[in-house]
Every structure is written in structure tokens, then in C-alpha cells.
Amino acid sequence: MDRKYILAGIVGALIIVIGLYLNFNGAALGLVQGISEWLPISSKTQIMIASSYLLNLNLNIASNFSLVYAFGLFMEIGTILASLIYFRKDVLNLLKYLLRKGDPSHKKLFNYVVVSTIVTGLIGVPFYLIVDSLNGAYNLGIPMLILGFVLILDAILIKIARSKYASNKDRRTLQNLGIKEYILLGFAQALAAFPGVSRSGTTTSTLLLLNVDAGDAFRLSFIDMIFATSGAVALTLVASRHQVSHAISLITIPGLVISITVATIISLFLITFLLNEAKKSRIIYITAALGIVAIIGGILSLMLVTGGTAAAALS
Q1: What Å distances lie between residue 138 and 51, 141, 287, CA to CA?
Q2: Measured between alpha carbons, how far apart are the two ends of the chain, in Å?
Q3: Residue 172, beta-bridge partner list
Q4: How far is CA 222 from CA 91, 113, 290, in A?
Q5: CB neighbours (10 Å) of residue 178?
Q6: pTM confidence score
Q7: CA angle 188, 157, 86 (to 5 degrees)
Q8: For residue range 219-254, what is the model confidence (pLDDT) as tens digits?
Q9: Residue 198 per-residue DSSP state
């Protein structure tokens, strides 16, 4: 392993340990956000659950559900920063193309990001408003269970495709995708407005089901999240600023800074790991493992909600 990665890992671990010492709640939420954003278990859902324990909030109370749901979306700032750092060259190329100073070869990526993000916004905003009005009457586990089985199906399809086609020539890349695929990706991404639905899980699964090369599938999903998630954070600040402000007051500003820092560090390592593994044959097993993780997460969420409802009924 390259020494610079080892050094970065040591520095990152030290920062996380210091963060846990200075503000345990903030660092813990950052760990949850940084890990769960890249796994098919819905980071906002895990932040909702972690916040309910760390900040002592009962999710069965409508106002608390809205508060942690908005805070879960807001907490994605750390993972956006990590993606901007990792994919800085791609983002810069997109900005250059927007200003008519970029290479024409970047047109495909530009069109993909613009179309999918617009579709995500058009569909995702109404979804967000629907969830925000549910007052906690929402089962977090079922979407995670469904996504888990889809990921296992993805792993099976990748195995079949790689057994049938020995070379990479039959796998699709961004260059083989068109407007219909962009719209489909935008719709899949919009589903992540619902608690329990993982943005990275739905977009990566959709790309894999479209027979897109695994490396390209993860990369395109991660780049797309920068713009869609930035829009989601902006929407949260506009539509739910009071809930976000209340959540920040509970965690404190220093705690928030530590949380975002920890989430950024963890995210950088996971992005690097997943993109490296996506190029190897064991991505089949990693995809299946992610599916199992999602299923376990869904079962635990169902148990948590059921237990919380029973406790609320008895109290």
C-alpha cells in the first residue's frame, strides 16, 4: 500500500479520536454519516436513528421526526465536501464546459449531471414535502429491505454478465447512455427523499442493472450526488431551517464542525476503497455484501420502529 495512504489514514484516525474526545455526539454522528452515505442503508435514516439516541429525541413524536429528518439531510454536507475533494477535476471540467471553456469530450458527463439532477429536483422536492408532512407515520425498514434484495440481484447479474462476456467491450459506459437513462437515474435518485432509501444504493443499482461497468456505475453515482445532494441541503435550509437550527443547538456549533470534519474524512477513505474495488472481480461479493447489510439494516429498523411504537403505546 502507498505510504501516503497509510499516513493519511493515521492522520485521519487521530482527528477522529480527538473529535470523539472533544465532542462525542458530533464525532459519532459524523462517523455514522461518513460510513452510511456510501452503503445502501440510507445515511439520513441512520442519522435519524443515531440522533434519536444521542440527542434523546423520540421519533414517535411528530415534531422530533421532522427535526431529525431535516437534520439527516443537512448532515450530508460532509459527504458533499468529500466528493468535491475527490472528484475536483471532474467538477472543474464541468464548470469549464458550462463556461464554454472546456473540452467537448466533457459534454456527455455535463448532460448526464444536468438532466439527472433536474429530474431529481422535479420529483424529489414533492417527495420531500410529502415525507415532511407524514408526522412520523413512515416505516423506515421496508425500503432498505427492498434495496437489499435489489443489490443481491445486481451481484448475480454482474456474475452472469462477467461469465458470459470475458471482455469489457459488452459492458456499457457513460458514452453508451442517453437521455432515457439520465431520466431513469434522476428518478432513482429522487426516491432517496424517502427515509430508508439510499441515494447511492438506488443510483448504483440502477446503473448496474443497465449493464454499466461497475467502476463507471460507482463513479457516476458519486459524481451525481454532489449536485443532487447540494440541492437537497439547500431545500432543507429553506423549507426546514427552524428544525435544522434546533438540531444544531442540540449538538452545538463546535459539535457540528467536528461532525462534518469526521464525515468528510471517513467519506474520502470509503470513496477510494469502493472505486478501487469496483475495478476488481470481488466487486460481485462486495455488492452482495452491501445487499446483506441493507437487509440487516432494514430488519433492525423495522424492529426499532415496532419496539418504539409498542413503548409509546404503553407509556
Answers
A1: 17, 9, 27
A2: 55
A3: 212
A4: 12, 11, 16
A5: 11
A6: 0.78
A7: 55
A8: 999 999 999 989 888 888 887 788 788 888 888 888
A9: -
